[in-house]
Amino acid sequence: ICKVFDDNLPKLIELLNITLMEPRAVRTSTGGYGGGSVRVAKGVSIRMGGAQGRSTSHDELTNIDTGTLTISNKRIVYRKKKKNYDIPLTKVVNLTPFRDALEVQVSNKQKPEYFKGTEKYTKSFNVDRENVNVILNSSFLKAIIISLIQN
């Protein structure tokens, strides 16, 4: 994080209406038939050939819930309608900022979590007796979290 913000680094940020997204497996099936048919009698046909089906799976980002994202000097807490949970900063292994979301990879989870909707918030800092407003986009949140981890 920029040295200018070290003295004014917030110990707590709370953001409402943040969407939690997770990659979820989506299965698609395709199939087809190849061959012809021979009419044996009126209304009776025999099909010759074969059918083949194929199923594939891939991950798609899925909206899980909307809740409150809180960043403290020890953890990231997400409170949602269905379930609350927290991520100790010591377990964060990677943070990837995107234009509209922050990806958080945690050491005890296979798949990352995405927090979307932070860019609609601003935070005011007093720098050299001047008020500075910063949009809390994912890059800024990453810098804050990294700074908290390192301290």
Give structural notes.
A hairpin with a 2-residue loop joins β2 and β3. It is built from one helix and nine strands, in the order βββββββββα. The protein has a seven-stranded antiparallel β-sheet with strand order 4-3-2-1-7-6-5, covered by helices on one side. By secondary structure, the protein is mostly beta strands. The N terminus is likely disordered.
The helix/strand class is: mainly beta
Q: Strand order across the biggest sheet?
A: 4-3-2-1-7-6-5
Number of helices: 1
Distance between the termini: 12 Å
Q: Which word captures the global form?
A: elongated
Radius of gyration: 25 Å
What amount of the residues lies in strands? over 45%
Major sheet summary line = 7 strands, antiparallel
- Fraction of residues in helices? under 10%
| Mean pLDDT level | 82
Which consecutive residue ranges, at least 5 long each, have pLDDT under 50?
Answer: 1-10
The H/E string reads EEEEEEEEEH
User: Got a strand count?
Assistant: 9
Seen as an oligomer or otherwise, the chain set is single chain
